[in-house]
Amino acid sequence: MCMNIEPLATGVWFQRVAVIAGGELGSIENSLRHAAHLVQLTPFAFRRVMPPILDEDAFEALLESGDYDTAARQLFVTPTTLLIETSSDERPLRAVIGCAILKRPVDGTGESAAAAMLDAWAKWLVTLRLEFGSDLDDDPVPVSGAPIPICKSACPGLS
User: Fold this and answer.
1) Tens of pLDDT along the chain (159 residues)?
2) 56-75: string of b/e by CB count within 10 Å (b at 16+)?
3) How far apart are CA 155 and CA 25, in angstroms?
4) Whole-angstrom Cα distance, residue 39 to residue 42?
5) Rounded distance, CA 116 to CA 2, Å?
6) For the whole model, what pTM was predicted?
7) How far apart are CA 74 and CA 94, in angstroms?
8) Phi/psi class of residue 4: alpha, beta or left (left: φ > 0; alpha: ψ in -120 to 50)?
9) Which residue spans within the chain are E strands per DSSP?
């Protein structure tokens, strides 16, 4: 996606993760797009656990084609493992992340596999911050006053 952009300050970045976790962006497509933009703006302390997402055109093509499951899978990289659990009853789908850093699973639920993965992704990041927060809040604040990426697509809610 966009290269060479300044990271957001850790606190601001996590506020934006919380927006995704709270389902405040209106659709899975908007939430996935926002998540991809947050990956671009990842604070330095988290870059070793965040994957480089496909180039923006390829990611947008996944979203535009409605292939949200494949788009959501782009949010994960080793040392994480991902399991999607389905159920024969009316319960929501469940995504489970096994994280070697945390040494425990983190799960999320949703009406679709993509929604469950996105929920698990947001909870995983929040759990990492809770576990290692004091080590991660020392990131320098971005130098520019407007750390918003210059991307090819709109990122709802990041203004």
Assistant:
1) 344 678 888 889 999 999 998 889 989 999 999 999 999 888 887 877 777 776 788 999 999 999 999 999 888 875 568 888 887 777 889 999 988 888 889 999 999 999 999 999 999 988 888 887 766 554 444 444 434 444 444 444 444
2) beebbebbeeeebbebbbbb
3) 10
4) 5
5) 26
6) 0.78
7) 17
8) left
9) 80-85, 93-99, 104-110
Q: Specify whether the CB–CB gap between 113 and 19 falls below 8 A.
A: no
Distance CA 1, CA 9 (A): 19
CA atoms within 13 Å, Cβ hemisphere of 52: 5
Count of beta carbons in the 10 Å neighbourhood of residue 143: 7
Specify whether the CB–CB gap between 103 and 128 falls below 8 A: no
Query: Do the beta carbons of residue 108 and residue 122 sit within 8 Å?
Result: yes
Token duo for residue 105? 């699973």
Give the amino acid at 87: S
